[in-house]
Amino acid sequence: MNTKPPVPEAPGSAGGPAAPLLEVRNLYVEYLTPRGPAQAVHNVSFSIGRGQVFGLAGESGCGKSTIAHSILRVLRPPAVITGGQIRVDGADVLKMQDAELEDFRWRKVAMVFQSAMNSLNPVITVGEQIDDVLIRHNRLSPAQARERSAELLKIVGIESARLKSFPHQMSGGMRQRVVIAIALALNPALLIMDEPTTALDVVVQKDILRQIQQLKAALGFSILFITHDVSLMVEFSDNMAVMYAGEVVEMAPAREIFSNPIHPYTRGLLSSFPSLQGRRRKLTGIPGSPPDLVNPPSGCKFHPRCTRCTRLETEAAPQLTEVTAGHWVAYHDGLRLTEAAA
Amino acid sequence: MRYILRRLGFYLAALAVAITINFFLPRLLPGDPAAVILGTSAAKLTPENLRAVREALGLSDAPLIQQYGLYLAHLFRGDFGISYTYFPTPVTKVIANGFVWTLLLGSVSLVLSFALGNLIGIYGSWRRGGLVDTVFPPLLIFIGSFPAFFLALGLLYAFGVKLDWLPISHAYNNRLPQGFNLPFLLSVLEHMVLPATTSVLLGIGGWALGMRNVMVSVLADDYVTMAEAKGLKQIRIMFVYAARNALLPGVTGFGIALGAILSGQVLIETVFSYPGLGFLLINSVNGRDYPLMQGLFMMITIGILAANFLVDILYTWLDPRVRTG
Ligand SMILES: Nc1ncnc2c1ncn2[C@@H]1O[C@H](COP(=O)(O)OP(=O)(O)OP(=O)(O)O)[C@@H](O)[C@H]1O
Ligand SMILES: [Mg+2]
Predict the structure, then answer these.
(1) In the predicted model, what is the mean pLDDT of residues B242-257?
(2) Is B42 within the bounds of a domain?
């Protein structure tokens, strides 16, 4: 855990003189399970520039939600952050005291949780659940908050009469929109969307994503977009990272990943989903299952499933390296690619 | 509102059924119901005895339907006859008096143990593994597992006899004029301390542990995580987001306990000679006071139904999901 590889300059922040909005550096998160610590997030670094969309992709269980929860510090035991730094707008999130943390939450970073359907309190009206965040952070009176809540609902396309509805009286898509309205209530700098649309049908999914894109254009927030649907991500993100077993294995501008994936895992992921842009690929998927995070495989964690495994894969773990400008990959053959090019 | 009315209809129907069963049950018994009810002592039955019981039960040689009509008429007039043990007070009056004391003692103890138990459960689960969480629930469960009369006698002996801090029997000071005056109300309060404490100690552990366990699972729910992410104040997350949801299963238990108030304090009332319904029930059984017994059973049935109805109303207010259901 002491061997800290060089922190890659995230593609999003490259070039701009201003510091990135979100900077995650060498983040380590473990779940203390009865069998021992499971390394859910292992030395992950990335950053998101202002107004950028950053995608985080990877199979179920690779640690995407864990990273999202770390940024807002809402991880629950048995999770512990064992190392690293998270900076939002320059402020060190992991060092914040309770009061500071409470003010930081939702004002700077808001989140649409993976189970957005279940993230509304069933026993109070949706109106109250928008109001309370406005009253808490903006010190609005209940009447002012109600007015603003009505505006927010309108933004996501729900009539304000619905403020008095309870969550169970709404459809899944509507609840999702309510959660998005709550997330936008304070005009956050960063919006985390953890699989925001997986529970919805494709048409509603598209509709909501389009709406978010419009809102982003109008309000200028950054987005951390989490999904395991890579083709959706490619369409939606500026830059993206592919995670495997708690580690980033490839990171680059989304289009670059789509057109020129290097890591065999990324290639596998891309071939697991039909392209939304209509170009047909043969769906092959990735054989095998994710590794045990308590006793991960030695060397490259992907080697047991790697179809192009060479002798090198079983030796030292490959480091995340910039193979071409802005394209980072943790893959031995990728390294050789660059050496060959040099 | 429609839902509430529907529930009300249901309870009225249940009440009608209970009333009818109360009428038919003695008549379905083989042989002379009065003799059967008098049971083992039947050998020593005197004709007056039999007549009294028959009268109390509304038994006569008239056609069944006519008996039923008479029974209902008496019931609606609240006429259960005259109590033997408190002769010549009408049963209704005896019950009304006992009802006041039982309701007072029962509701005060239930509200106290429900409120305190739930607060301990809420706080304990919030600071899971902390001092409150590790000490209180097991300790209270341990105390609550003592037999009621043992706990009651223990308290009576320690605080009533040894230390002589508190009165050990009855519900108020007989020498004071009854009514809304301070000395009398203080004496009522003083007399309630020991029986109420016994009852609270018996019930509180269950509430605390139940609430704690439901809270632990509610705290893992997504809407609680989201409330935390929203940066809301701890107190709001704890009560409005977590506890309000965790309270829902407890409300059902509260209803059961509320219904049981009327019948469930027999032991405590007996130990402290507290003149409530439980005390009356024991007396009526000992004195073979059938009119009183029948009145008490009717009263307890009504109490349980009313308590359940109250819980339905409470539940509707707490959980919007049942309103449409
Ligand atoms: N409470 C927990 N106790 C132990 N292990 C956990 C716990 N929560 C998560 N994990 C483990 O941590 C790893 C990362 O979980 P995480 O929820 O971050 O995955 P994810 O990438 O968001 O997956 P998904 O796409 O299914 O949402 C998983 O392998 C999971 O098994
Ligand atoms: Mg997840």
Answers:
(1) 89
(2) yes
Domains of chain B: total: 2
The residue of chain A with its CA nearest to that of B240 is: A124
pLDDT of residue A337: 57
Nearest in space to A251 (alpha carbons), one of A339, A341, A335, A325 = A325
CA B152 to chain centre: 17
Predicted local distance difference test score (pLDDT) of residue A11? 46
> Can you give the residue range of the structural domain that contains A307?
22-108+188-341
Give yes or no for a contact between B230 and A132, defined as CB atoms under 8 angstroms apart. Answer: yes
* Ligand in nearest proximity to the CA of A75: 1
Q: Where residue B161 sits, what CATH number does that domain have? A: 1.10.3720.10
Position B176 scores a pLDDT of 83
ipTM value greater than 0.90: no
Ligand 2 centre and the CA of A303: distance in Å?
24
Asked, for residue A31, whether it belongs to a domain, the answer is yes
- How many structural domains does chain A have? 1
Smallest CA-to-CA distance from A195 within A230, A167, A247 is with A230
Q: Do B230 and A106 touch (CB under 8 A)?
A: yes
Q: Is the CB of A172 within 6 Å of ligand 1? A: no
Termini Cα distance of chain A: 31
Q: Provide the shortest C-alpha distance from residue A66 to chain B (in Å).
A: 13
What is the structure's pLDDT at A65?
A: 95
Higher per-residue pLDDT: A276 or A20: A20
Q: In a mutagenesis test of the B interface, which of A102, A109, A121 is the best target, namely the one with the most B β-carbons within 10 Å?
A: A121
Of residues B276 and A207, more confidence is placed in B276
Mean of per-residue pLDDT scores for chain A: 86
Q: Which of A74, A118, A124 sits opposite B221 (nearest CB)?
A: A118
Q: Do B22 and B46 belong to one domain?
A: yes
Closest by Cα among B263, B251, B256, B262 to B319? B251
Query: What separation in Å is there between the alpha carbon of A24 and the centre of ligand 2?
Result: 18
